[in-house]
Each structure stands twice: as C-alpha cells, then as structure tokens.
Amino acid sequence: MQARQREENPENTNDEIDIKALVHSLLRYKKSIFLLILISLLVSLYIAYFKPNLYQTHALIKIDSGANKSSHSDLIPITIMTESNNIDDEIVVFKTLKIAQKALENLHLGTRYYLTKNFKQRELYKETPFIVTTASINKKAQGLTFHLTPLDKKKFKLEIHPSFKTNFFNFIRGLFKPIENEPLSYSEIHQFGEEINTSLFSFTIHKIHAFDTGSYSFTILPNSAMLGLVHGGISASLKTKYGTIIQLTFQDTVPLRAKEILEALTKAYVEENLELKTKSLKKKLSFVDKQLEAITKTMQGSTDKLQTYRSANIVIDPTSKVELTTQKLIELEGQLYTIHARIEVIDNILTYMNRHNRIEGIDMESAQKANPIVGNIVQKIQETQRKYKTLLVSFTTAHPEIRKITVELDTLKTSLRETLQSSLRELNKQKTSLTARIEKNKGTLQDLPKQEQELEQLTRNFMVNEKIYSFLLQKRAEIAIAESSIIANTRVIEAPALPWGFIKPKRKMIILMGLVLGLILGLAQAFVRNLLDDTLKRVEDIEHLTGIPLYASLPLHNSVSTRHYHEALRVFWSNLEFLQESNHSKMITFTSTISGEGKTFTTFQLANLISKNGKSVIILDLDMRKANIHHIYKLTNDAGMSTLLSGKHTLNNVLHKQVQKHLDIITSGPIPPNPIGLIMSDTLKTILSDLKGHYDYILIDTPPVGLVADAMKLMHMSDITFFLVKSDYSKKDFIHNINRLTQDHNINTGMILNGISMENEYGYGYGYGYEY
C-alpha cells in the first residue's frame, strides 16, 4: 500500500477543466447567485418603472447650395465673402448655441409642472390644471420645488420642503461648522387668482380645470436657463450620404414640447440663413451705391466741361483719323479701368488676409474673376478647413492627421499669398503697358488743331464716364432685384410631427439586461469565491491532490443525514476488513492536521458501530492535551493513559469496561507535564502488546499531527493511520503536509473526508450514492 501511495505524484494532477466539478462548485453558491439575480432584477424593475419615457420627433431640411448666386459676368470689386453652403458646415451651424438661443426667444419653458402619482413623477406641459404667472423670483428660489395641494375649489396649500439631498449635506456640514443659512421652507394657504408676494418670489396661480388625483408641484427658472434643454436634445445628420437633405431630430420627455422646440429651431435656422444672405446683398448694394455716387460726380463734371467748351468755341468735326484714334483711346482707357478694378480686388484680398489672417471673408466669385488660379486655391483652402473642423470633433490638435492638415493649410495660404502678389505684379505690368499705349495715342492727337484736341479730350472723358455709369446702374438694378426676391437657400420639406410613441426606455430590454447582469454577477462572484476558497470540498479534491487512498467520505452528522452517515461509516468499516489479516488485532490511529476536523467523533462512532456488530473494541485517548472521549461517554478522567504510562496506576485501574457491550475505554487522564515523553516510553509499547491479545480493534485518538509530534510514534506502531480532513474547513495545503509526512516517515496511511454537506454533494465514496 505504501508503494501505491508513492505511485501518484500529487503535483502532477490533471489540469483539465472538470465541467461536472465546476458546475458542482457553482451550485454551492446558488443562494448568493439567486440573491444577486434577484437584486439585479429588482434594480432593473425600479429603473424600468421610474425612468421617464423619451419621445423623438424629426424634421427634414433641404439645403440648396447654389441658390441666389450672382450670375453677372462682369467684375464687381467686392471683397465681402458670402457664406459657403457646405452641408457639413450647415449641420454644425444648426447645432450651435446661437440657433438654440434664437429658438428659445419664441418659447416659454421656464415654468415646469409635475404630477406625482403611484410614486412616479410625470411632467405636465400645456396639460396642467393650473398655471403660474411669475412677476419676480429671487435666485435663491429659482429651481426650488413648490408643492401645491388643492384644498377645495378656491383654496390650495403652497409648500416648499428642503430636499433629502439638501438636508443630508446640511447635516454633514453641521458636524464641522454651524449652518449659516437654513434651507428655505414655506407653507401657507392661498386662493386661486391671488397674488402671492414674499421677499423671494411674487407670482399668481390660476386654476384652469379640475385637479386629478396625485401630488402637484412646479419649478420656476428664467426662460434663458432652459438653453441646455433646447440645445441638449437636438441632433442633425445627413439623410443620405451624398445628399443635401439634413434630418433633424429632437428628444424630450414631453412629446408636445419636443415638437414645438424642433419647430422653433428649424424656424430660427431658416431666419438666420435669410438674414445672412440679406446682409451680404445689402453690403454689395452699398458698395455699388458708393461707386455710383463717385462716378456721377465725375460724369457731371465731364458733361459741364463739354457743354461749356462747345458753347464758347466753334469746332470743326474731327476727321476719320481723329475718330479712330479717339475710339481706340476710349477702348484702352476702359481696359485700364478694368485693370484698376482687378488691382483693387487683389489689394483688398491681401489687406484682408494680412489684417485677419484668414480667408473666410474672401468672396469666391471676386477672387475667381480677379484670377482663376486664386479662386481655385481659395476653394481648396476652404475644403481643407472644413476637413480640419470635422477632424477636430474627434481628435486633438496633437493628432498626426490634424498636424498634417495644419501644414497643408499653411502651405496653401503661402501659395495664395504668392499667387496674389504675382498677379498684382502682372497687373501692374499690364497697367504700365496700357498707360504707355494711351500716351502714344494721345501724342498722335497732338498734331490736330488745339480746339479739336480739347474737344476730343472732353468727349472721350464723357464717354468713358458714361460707360462706367451705365455699367454700375445695371449692376445696382441686378442686386436690387436679387434683394427684393431673396429666399433662403434652405427649406423645410417635412415639418416636425407630434410623436405618438416613446423610443426609450426599452423596458423589456432593461429587465432582460437586469436578469443577464444579475446572472453574470452571480456567476462571477461564485467563480471568484470558488477561486479564493482553498478549503477541501469533495472527494475529487483529495484525489487530485494526493495518492493516499481515500477510505471514506462521511457526511455531516445531523438529524437529516444520520442514516446516510451510518451508511458511510459501515462502508468505511467494510474497507477496514480488507486490511491485511494478521494474528493480532487491528490497531488503528486517528489523527488530523489541526483541531476540529472530527477525528474524536469519528473514533467514537466507529467504535460504537464495530462493538454493536459483536467485535471487541477498545478506545485509547492519547490526546492528552485536549481530551474529549470522556466527555462523549460521560466518564471520569481522574485516571487514564497519563497515569498508566507514568506508573501511578495499573491497567485495571484505568480501564472503563463495558461502556457499552464489547466496548472498553481508557481515557486520557490528567494532563501530564510532558505528554510526548510518556508516549515515546517503552511502557506504551508494552501496554499495546498486551491489549492486542484481548481486542479485535484498538482505536487510538491522537493529537493533531500538524500541531504536535505526539502522534508520530503511534503511527509507526499502528497497522494504519487515518488522516481526517473536513469539508469546507480543512485547507488544501494540509494535503501537501500529509504527503510530505507520509513520504518522510514511511508510514501506512489512509484518508477520510469528513463533514460533507448533503445539499452540496451528489454522492459519496467512489461514484455511488447511499440511496443505492
């Protein structure tokens, strides 16, 4: 048997997951698993019941990116930039606080009404049986909950109670220092329609219709404080990936308020868009008016000079040569005017960039006509900037993509400046060339008579100014027509509708998630507890840790499992009968690693079983430090093994005969000063040899081997030594200690698993249960 114990190394156990053992381990914690599932379910039911319904409404807005663009082909030197209608930019604009503030001007949301019924609070919006008309309210009273209790058709009770949170924090603060300002409280009876005036608030409560059952309350805040409510519930996205339709959604706990807020937001957005376009056209019109005013004065001067000259001089009609030269001069001076206008545009763009260090204010149309390359670069910069803004939503400025786009923007802006400067130099060259040609044609006219030259000069100036004036008049008319017929480049194609069903919470999903979460938490805690629990539980735990034979697995001994316990004990005795037969009786030692593992009780029960079956048994209580046998059998302990081994008494003096039929007992006796010395003496060996001739079984109860060394001598003298370990009590490390002890001292040992719970164990022994 000792060789069999050494065959299996407990360190090389099978590490494969035993599903049956795992399930069995989890079943040990079924109560805590069920409790966590129940708690999680109750929490999910609480959330599902008290979480307010969330309603959603939506609207569709179409963005016409090409609306109201000027179609004139001539250059107007206006450097005021009109807004680009990029769809992504429009989505960002819609979600700005400016739009929310503008929408809030047409809403009245500061006073909110509530009804609490069946422990659940519901907000009333335009369905309240009363309204509050506020004259003034102090900041201290803003946001406080006013409770209204109707007493009859005319009277009501108005109360302010400090909230639990306020009382709690005031209590905590009061532990450290006195509370300076007590929380506001109020309780008075008033009549409907009566003006209620206090130092903190002044308002009137009007009754609209009869009150329903439940508790009513209301809060008052400035309308501007509702900006978060308006701005927080809005979301915008493209209806299709590459389309121009924006889908706007708004979520709120009150369906009618959600509809009205989204209506106000869409209206504010369309008005804002219209205002921006009108402002742009007004600036253009103002610029043209200034140009007209200047050219009118110039043309009036030219007309006066021409008329004065003709009235004072008789001028011969110019020859055909003069006419041709004059016509050419008019054409060249018109070109020079256009060059001047383009130079002015580029100068204005450069000045704008130097002053503002950005390109958002540059008019794409003016830049394109000043120089097509400039227009392309500006467009490229605008596209890159939109990409930059989009990335900023998800990344910081330190992100590699952001840095890359920043470098690209700097490069494009540098290229824009260089292109503008290059264009300016080229235009100045053209200006110089045109000026030289004009001077050359003027020289041609020097040969004409003086009066003809003067007349020609005056006529030419008049015609040039008239042409410019006609051009500006035409542009002013175009802009005026555009202003009078301007429409927003956005239109609502689907207005918000009143939502009939709520979108959240998904109450069935919440309850299901509560059950799943409870199950996960329950299993998790069971796994953790099982992982941290290093106590022995079942037969398999011992078989995985040691090669020492397991002779018995005994259930807990109680009123429920008494029959099963005695069945297991009979199986254990049957296993003892298979011990090698000898001419002397079987001497069996019972020990454990620590106190409390049940060795004394097992010795007592086994002795009773053997004696009842007609075998002679004697129990020797050699646990002299903590004896218990005499308590179990209610025997005196004045004399026993300690006095017998020390020579004070003889065997007949200490032997308790026939405690029950076929059962004798020698108690431990008084505690000696040196128990191990007595056990190690030759006297014990002599006594045991004498007893073997009189009894079939000698059962020895020894001290725990993990605490003292008293049992070692007895183990070598015994036929077999049984180590008792207790389920849910003994540590797994104890098995390693038993393995080392068995190997180091070469003793014949066996294992007994004691105290197995009937609720947690499906069977005992080697795969069969006691119901067999």
Helices and strands in order:
Elements: H1 2-7, H2 19-27, H3 30-50, E1 55-63, H4 87-94, H5 97-104, E2 111-117, E3 120-124, E4 130-137, E5 146-150, E6 155-160, H6 164-176, E7 186-191, E8 195-197, E9 201-207, E10 215-220, H7 227-232, E11 234-238, E12 245-252, H8 255-312, H9 320-356, H10 364-370, H11 372-394, H12 400-444, H13 450-484, E13 490-494, H14 507-532, H15 539-545, E14 550-555, H16 562-576, E15 586-592, H17 599-612, E16 617-621, H18 629-633, H19 641-645, H20 651-654, E17 655-660, E18 663-666, H21 675-679, H22 682-692, E19 697-701, H23 711-717, E20 720-726, H24 732-745, E21 749-756
Parallel strand pairs: 14-21, 15-19, 15-20, 16-18, 16-19, 20-21
Antiparallel strand pairs: 1-12, 1-13, 2-3, 2-10, 4-9, 5-6, 5-10, 6-7, 8-9, 11-12, 17-18
Helix pairs in contact: 3-14, 5-8, 8-13, 9-10, 9-12, 9-13, 10-11, 11-12, 16-17
